[in-house]
Design brief:
269 residues; Oxidized Rhodanese, domain 1; 5-stranded parallel sheet; 2 domains; alpha/beta; elongated; 9 helices
């Protein structure tokens, strides 16, 4: 009887030991799985935060994007002159040499298609964008040349044509009274200027105007005058100004300062 009791106790202890060991092994297995899951999660995060790659895109694909009015920004990274000669309509111009300092002008949340003439500058620009955190960057490597080979439409900036504008004495007097933004320039000799000139008129003889262009503002309309119809100096001066980049140039025609005085308009002597 005592032997049976002892045997029962031993069997019970063995079962308890086996059960405990099994529980411990299960816990270790669970911990191992959790560690693996954490490691997998870390790898996934790494993949998600990887730097995006530049995606090559053809002119045909870009054309479809434009036709379908998809929300892309098209970036032209050529020079101002090249852009003016012909560009994809609606494209934004930032020359590649200025791109690094003008990134704030570009949206981070919109796909950007970059192009140049034939691919070199667009690749440089695309890399600059990727390195600065832009994610969806497409490089139209064939450039505007591929675009034009497909006969896709281009827009060109028409240069405005500036001309010398003739103005009468009466019109000039109205400006003199009402608009102080206009600059009058007397192109006669010093002796003639001292005999009588329009108030506040700047004096630069026509023989000196080519050397004194830096004294004149390019952001103001300029009215040049001399003695009148028999005097060609104001016309010559106006031509010099126009040829040197001045945009809004008026030539006081008719009787010039002589007619101005005859009409009783004010002069300083």
């Amino acid at each position: 009887m005592k032997k049976n009791k002892l045997f029962t106790i031993i069997i019970t202890l063995i079962f308890i030991t086996i059960f405990s060991l099994s529980a411990i092994l299960n816990q270790c297995g669970t911990a191992s799985t959790e560690i693996k899951n954490i490691e997998d999660s870390d790898n996934y995060i790494e993949e998600e935060t990887e730097i995006s790659e530049i995606i090559q895109i053809s002119a045909e694909e870009v054309y479809v994007i434009i036709i379908e009015e998809k929300d892309f920004l098209i970036l032209d990274v050529r020079t101002i002159e090249e852009y003016s000669e012909g560009h994809i309509e609606g494209s934004k111009l930032i020359p590649v040499s200025e791109l690094g300092s003008r990134l704030n002008e570009l949206p981070q949340d919109k796909p950007i298609i970059v192009y140049c003439k034939s691919g070199n500058r667009s690749n440089t620009a695309a890399n600059i964008l990727i390195e600065n955190g832009f994610k969806k960057i497409y490089d139209m490597g064939g450039g505007i040349l591929e675009w034009q080979e497909n006969s896709f439409p281009v827009a060109a900036e028409e240069e405005p044509i500036f001309e010398i504008i003739p103005i009468t004495v009466d019109e000039a007097y109205e400006i003199f009274i009402n608009n102080k933004n206009y600059l009058f320039v007397d192109v006669r000799s010093e002796e003639e200027y001292n005999l009588g000139h329009i108030e506040a008129a700047m004096h630069i003889p026509v023989t000196e105007i080519g050397d004194r262009l830096n004294e004149l503002p390019k952001d103001r309309p300029i009215i040049v005058y001399c003695n009148g119809s028999s005097c060609a100096r104001s016309g010559r001066a106006a031509t010099i100004l126009l040829d040197n980049g001045f945009k809004e140039i008026y030539d006081l025609v008719g009787g010039g300062i002589t007619e101005w005085e005859e009409k009783g308009y004010p002069v300083l002597k």
